[in-house]
Write a structure and sequence with these properties.
By secondary structure, the chain is of the alpha/beta class. About 40% of the residues lie in helices and about 15% in strands. It has a six-stranded mixed beta sheet with strand order 1-3-4-5-2-6. α6 links the parallel β4 and β5. The longest helix has 16 residues. The N and C termini lie far apart (about 45 Å). About 5% of the residues have low confidence.
């Protein structure tokens, strides 16, 4: 039996779900803002400020546009992979190892995918027992252009996370999109 890759195990391929559900472009302007941010040469990982469900509808609309080839050329062949935070955190042991494996697999496929991370502040809040800080690793990968991420958090959670760890703010500096 084939073992699932960390991307398959802890990620949801939103492109593969296009057509299985009706997606309405309720946030068309926000989807366009996300597309514009993703197409930038630098600072191309947007942070959506709003509720996870509204941000997920933006991500679903983006995935539909990618599949239907309604995006700029540099996004045409990208897969939008949503990090399944609940699945990742379901087993409290070895969260760090699972997240590291997921991030390593994502970086290896960097030119092929965009990560969608709901409740991104949780990554910066995970208690780390080793010297490697997952939030720092994500920030480094984003800032060095190794990976593109669409992060999601609320304004309140952003402020709380920033009090503990400024890496979240630094990671998504310059690309915040507010959803009402």
């Amino acid at each position: 039996m084939d073992e699932q890759s960390p991307l398959e195990k802890y990620g949801i391929d939103l492109n593969a779900q296009v057509g299985k559900q009706e997606v309405e472009d309720v946030h068309e302007v926000k989807v366009n803002q996300v597309i514009q941010a993703l197409c930038r040469r630098i600072k191309n990982s947007p942070l959506i400020l709003g509720e996870a469900s509204a941000a997920r509808s933006v991500a679903d609309s983006l995935a539909r546009r990618i599949v239907n080839e309604e995006v700029p050329e540099n996004l045409l062949h990208k897969r939008l992979i949503a990090l399944n935070i609940e699945g990742l955190l379901a087993e409290p042991d070895e969260i760090e190892n699972r997240l590291q494996a997921f991030m390593k697999a994502a970086v290896q496929k960097a030119g092929e995918l965009i990560l969608f991370v709901p409740e991104v502040q949780l990554i910066f809040d995970i208690e780390i027992t080793s010297p490697l800080d997952i939030g720092f690793s994500l920030t480094r990968a984003v800032r060095q252009g190794e990976i593109q991420v669409i992060g999601v958090t609320t304004v309140e959670q952003l402020h709380l996370a920033a009090e503990k760890n400024s890496a979240l703010i630094y990671c998504f500096r310059g690309s915040k999109i507010q959803i009402p």
